[in-house]
């Protein structure tokens, strides 16, 4: 299947396409489908700098045409990749890039590696199934902002270079305008890329893919006795640590299908995501997920389940079930140790003590009982004083059950005192890891509604705030407030 051929032109970015070193069975070459009269919605200067671009160059007609898919440089051979996957725990068979087209890869500005540039929403591909191959402005803004927000939070993620929009309408629950978000990552290979070849019983293609991933992204694994086992081990560790990062910042992905899991341990495919507000470990951010498979509390377990699915797919390469299980066994300790370390940082502890896990469990219990805002609590906790741990009203008043907080605060203060913690230094350390600003759904919705009326100023404003999540930014104080009542009616689903 091919789309109408886009015109080509020379472009200052020097493209190659390392993915095409794989055999043609791994992808389909095709051109993006043009959108009429594209315009720039938003651009990330930080993402642009990664590939040596000045963000102002993204405003030119040539860049608009390139990053909408209307014009393709001579040396570019766009493609859509094939993969399969488990969706909500059920084998879904062949999936693939249904609305994403890979332009190619460009050198990183620092000379370390390359970035693939992928146009999400660039039109029909052979893998679109019942879809139209398009993305809407609403979902593109959410992905763009969250990709860059997660980067600023220090969480591994794909990046977002820019959003281009068009007045062309596409039908979702209602007609919406189309958009294309340009995503960046060293690779978009997924767990489902491996599953595709395993379940199709094509072990030669499976080996070819694994060799490509090792040679391109994990070359040191070639020195091990079993590089494929070493690859599974490395990906398992990265996935476990990613889950710990998500839990520690209160991020919920919403659709942790195996086709949405990165082989590089990156946060991939932002759809119905959310950041925890009123703390509820059973919170489901995806309105489509009626069974709660991807609730906040289950994310670590699902991360491990997905690693087992990858291990199953890699079994023909690794050799024995025992070796697969040995590689996967690292998940629980890798997650547990990293999560506890992140929690110690969040509450300002300098040393490791056996009782710390109990202290954290106690805290999450009282936060759940009082539905305490996750981000506000950890940010305000840095104001607690050892000499008077119950005296900070801004923290205490977050709890409906104040005596329960008082009990925990006294335990916490005793723990701090035991390691001679300094209130001033601890506050500096805690504020450096506990964000004041996260992409709350109502903030994204406000920006989306303005953008739908061609006012993109709020998207730019949010981006500038979220790029500095740990700074006080007194001029933007209202962006750290509790969500308004109307935000309780917001829902995000797989169409988001």
From TrEMBL:
It catalyses: L-threonyl-[protein] + ATP = 3-O-(5'-adenylyl)-L-threonyl-[protein] + diphosphate; L-tyrosyl-[protein] + ATP = O-(5'-adenylyl)-L-tyrosyl-[protein] + diphosphate; L-histidyl-[protein] + UTP = N(tele)-(5'-uridylyl)-L-histidyl-[protein] + diphosphate; L-tyrosyl-[protein] + UTP = O-(5'-uridylyl)-L-tyrosyl-[protein] + diphosphate. Keywords: ATP-binding, Magnesium, Manganese, Metal-binding, Nucleotide-binding, Nucleotidyltransferase, Transferase. It holds the Pfam family SelO. InterPro entries: SelO. ATP binds at residues 96, 98-99, 120, 132-133, 183, 190, 269. It is an enzyme of class 2 (transferase). The active site is at 259 (proton acceptor). Signal peptide: none annotated. Its EC number is 2.7.7.-, 2.7.7.108. Transmembrane segments: none annotated. Mg(2+) binds at residues 260, 269. The keyword S-adenosyl-L-methionine does not apply. GO terms for molecular function: AMPylase activity; ATP binding; magnesium ion binding; manganese ion binding. Its cofactor is Mg(2+); Mn(2+). It comes from the Bacteria. Belongs to the SELO family. Nucleotidyltransferase involved in the post-translational modification of proteins. It can catalyze the addition of adenosine monophosphate (AMP) or uridine monophosphate (UMP) to a protein, resulting in modifications known as AMPylation and UMPylation. This is Protein nucleotidyltransferase YdiU.
């Amino acid at each position: 299947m091919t789309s109408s051929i886009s015109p080509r032109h020379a472009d200052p970015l020097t493209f190659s396409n390392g993915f095409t070193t794989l055999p043609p069975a791994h992808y389909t070459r095709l051109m993006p489908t043009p959108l009429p009269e594209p315009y720039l919605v938003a651009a990330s200067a930080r993402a642009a700098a990664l590939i040596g671009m000045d963000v102002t160059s993204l405003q030119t007609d040539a860049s608009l045409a390139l990053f909408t898919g209307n014009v393709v440089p001579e040396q570019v051979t766009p493609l859509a990749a094939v993969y399969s996957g488990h969706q909500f725990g059920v084998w879904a068979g062949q999936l693939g890039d249904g609305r994403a087209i890979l332009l190619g890869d460009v050198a990183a500005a620092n000379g370390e590696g390359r970035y693939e540039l992928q146009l999400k929403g660039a039109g029909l591909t052979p893998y679109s199934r019942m879809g139209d191959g398009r993305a809407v402005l609403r979902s593109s803004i959410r992905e763009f902002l969250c990709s860059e927000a997660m980067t600023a939070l220090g969480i591994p993620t794909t990046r977002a270079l820019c959003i281009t929009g068009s007045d062309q309408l596409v039908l979702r629950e209602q007609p919406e305008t189309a958009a294309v978000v340009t995503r960046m990552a060293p690779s978009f290979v997924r767990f489902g890329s491996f599953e595709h070849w395993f379940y199709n019983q094509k072990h030669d293609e499976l080996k070819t893919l694994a060799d490509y991933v090792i040679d391109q992204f994990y070359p040191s694994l070639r020195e091990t006795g079993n590089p494929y086992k070493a690859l599974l081990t490395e990906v398992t560790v990265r996935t476990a640590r990613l889950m710990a990062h998500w839990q520690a910042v209160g991020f919920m992905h919403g659709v942790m299908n195996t086709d949405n899991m990165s082989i590089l341990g990156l946060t991939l495919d932002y759809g119905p995501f959310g950041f925890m507000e009123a703390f509820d470990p059973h919170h489901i951010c995806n309105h489509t997920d009626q069974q709660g498979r991807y609730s906040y509390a289950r994310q670590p377990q699902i991360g491990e389940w997905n690693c087992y699915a990858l291990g199953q797919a890699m079994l023909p390469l690794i050799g024995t079930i025992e070796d697969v299980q040995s590689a996967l066994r690292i998940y629980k300790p890798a997650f547990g140790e990293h999560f506890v370390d992140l929690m110690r940082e969040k509450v300002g502890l300098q040393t490791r003590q056996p009782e710390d896990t109990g202290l954290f469990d106690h805290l999450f219990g009282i936060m759940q009982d009082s539905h305490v805002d996750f981000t506000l609590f950890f940010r305000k906790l840095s104001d607690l004083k050892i000499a008077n741990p119950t005296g900070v009203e801004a923290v205490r008043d977050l709890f409906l059950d104040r005596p329960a907080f008082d009990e925990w605060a006294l335990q916490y203060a005793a723990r701090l005192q035991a390691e001679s913690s300094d209130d001033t230094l601890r506050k500096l350390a805690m504020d450096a890891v506990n964000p004041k600003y996260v992409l709350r759904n109502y903030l994204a919705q406000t920006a989306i509604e303005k953008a739908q009326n061609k006012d993109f100023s709020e998207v730019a404003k949010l981006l500038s705030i979220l790029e500095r999540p740990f700074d006080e930014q007194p001029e933007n104080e209202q962006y750290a407030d509790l969500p308004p009542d109307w935000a309780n009616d917001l829902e995000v689903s797989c169409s988001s």
